[in-house]
Amino acid sequence: MTKKMEKIWKLLAIASLMLVAMASCSSDEDVTMGEDEVVQFCDWPTAIQLTEEQKQMRDNNNEFAWRLFQTTQEADDHQVSSILSPLSVTYLLGMMDAGAAGCTRDEITGVLGSGNNVAAFNEYCKTMIDGSVIADPAATVKTANCIEVNSALGIDLLPQFVDDMKHYYYAQVDALNFTNGSTLDKINSWCKDHTDGMIPSILDQLSPDQAMIMLNAIYFKADWNARFDKKYTRKLDFTLPNGTTVKRDLMHIKVRTFFGHNDSCSVVRLPFGSGAYGMYILLPAEGVSLEKLIQGMNFQDLNANIQNNTLMGDIDVLLPKFETTNETQLIQPLSHMGIQSAFDPLSADFSNMTNAPLCVSKMLQKAKIEVNEDGAKAAAVTMAGFGFTSLEPYYNFDFHATRPFLYLILEESTRSIFFIGTYCGD
3-class DSSP state for residue 26? Predict the structure, then answer.
C-alpha cells in the first residue's frame, strides 16, 4: 500500500469518529431527513501491525479472496443473495498447506499467494487471528480451528504438524471414533459453539471411512458506528435482478462519511464500532447488472473502487435489512483456480501432516449474515474432509440501495476481507 493510501485510511479512521445521524421521514415514500444532528464519538481502534512481507501476503490473499468469490459466483444463481468468508477459507488452506508437500504444497501456496514460505504464512495467519480480536473493543471477532482425526482408522498426525497447528492456529486437535454416532453431534456442536449459534451444523452425516475433519470458524458481530433509527425503517420498492419490484424493509440514515462513484458503481463505507471494521457497499450504476459488475471487475478494479471512495459528504443512505444463509462447495472453484492435486487420490501429498495417504474428498463452507438497524453479525464455518487415496471537496450524495448490490466487510488497518456477499432482494 502506498503512503498516499495509508494516509487516506488514517483519514477514514478519523471520519468514522464523526458520523452524523439525522432525523427522518413522515410517510412510506418520503425519506427526507430532518435537521437535528447527533455526533457520535468512539474510541480509537487498534491497528494490526504487519511486516512488509506480511503486507504482500495480505495483498496476494485479498486477490485470492476476490478471485474465489468471482469463481463461486460463476456457478451461482444471480437471482439470489450470497455470502462467503474468504478469510475462513484462507485459514483452512493455511493449515492444509502446512501439512502438504511436493506439487500439492506448490499449488496451495501458488493460489494463496503465500510466496512458498509456509512458516511465514503461518505467522501471518497467527498475526491476523491475534490482531482481529483486539482491533476494535466495540466489535466481537472470534476465530477457531479444529482437527478431528478418526481414531478407528489408526491415523497418527506428525508431532511437528500438531505443534504448528496449536501454535499458529490455536487449533483443537482430537482423535474421535467416527463410527460412534455422538461424533457427528460433537463436530456440529463445535460449529454452533464457535459461531454463537449462527452455523448450527456443518455435516448431515459422517462416514466411518472419513479419515479426518479439519474446520475453521469465524464469527463477527458489531454495531454500526451510527445506528439506523428503527422508527425510520420503511417498506419501500426494491428492484429484483429480473426487473420486478417488491416491498422490502429499508433502513434510512444520513451519515457523514467517505464515498465514491464512477460509471460502473457507487461505493459507500459504513463503519462498525470504533472504526476498525467497515462494510463497503458497491451499488451498480443504473443499467449495470450486479452480475456484470462482479464479473467485469478484476482485483485491481475492486481495490480501486474501494480505495477511491475518498469524497467526503453527507450521504443519504437507504439500505435493506436482510439475512442471508449460504452453502458453498469449494472443491470445484479451488480446482479451477489451480489447487488440483490436493483433491486427487492419485497425486495428493500431505506427507508433512501424516504418513497416511490422504486426499481432500470434501470441502465446503456454510456462512450467514444478518444486517439490521443496530449493526451486523456474520459467521462462517469452512470444512475439509480428508479421505484415503485408494480527501477531497465536500458533497451531498444519495446512496439508495434499492436494487441488488455487492458488499464487503473489511478490517481497516490491514484491508483484509473477512466477508463478501451480495443482496438481491430475496
Answer: coil
Spacing of C-alpha 6 from chain mean position? 22
- Cell 491415523, residue located: 155
The maximal CA–CA distance of the chain, rounded, in angstroms, is 71
Tens-digit pLDDT profile for residues 99-141:
999 999 999 999 998 877 899 999 999 999 999 999 998 999 9
pTM reported for the whole predicted model: 0.89
The torsion angle over the Cα atoms of residues 147, 150, 156 and 159, rounded to 10 degrees, is 20
User: Domain residues of the chain, as ranges?
Assistant: 3-29+224-321+393-423, 64-222+323-388
The whole-angstrom separation of Cα 8 and Cα 2 is: 10
What is the DSSP pairing of strand 139-150 with strand 212-223? antiparallel
Rounded CA separation 413/239 (Å): 35
Residue 177, beta-bridge partner list: none
- What three-state secondary structure class fits 337? helix
Residue 367 CA, distance from chain mean position: 9
Let me know: does 406 contact 325? Beta carbons within 8 Å.
Answer: no
Residue type, 311: L
User: How is domain 3-29+224-321+393-423 classified at the CATH fold level?
Assistant: Alpha-1-antitrypsin; domain 1 (2.30.39)
Cell of 203: 455435516
Give just the sign of the alpha carbon dihedral 109, 115, 120, 121.
negative
Q: Could you check whether 3-29+224-321+393-423 and 64-222+323-388 share the same CATH topology?
A: no
Q: Which three cell numbers stand for residue 46?
A: 487498534
One-letter amino acid of 164: D
DSSP state of 152: G
Q: Is the pLDDT of residue 30 over 70?
A: no
**Separation of alpha carbons 327 and 251, rounded Å:** 27
Please give the C-alpha separations between residue 285 and each of 95, 137, 174, in angstroms, as whole numbers: 40, 36, 50
Instruction: Return the CATH architecture of domain 64-222+323-388.
Output: 2-Layer Sandwich (3.30)
39, amino acid identity: V
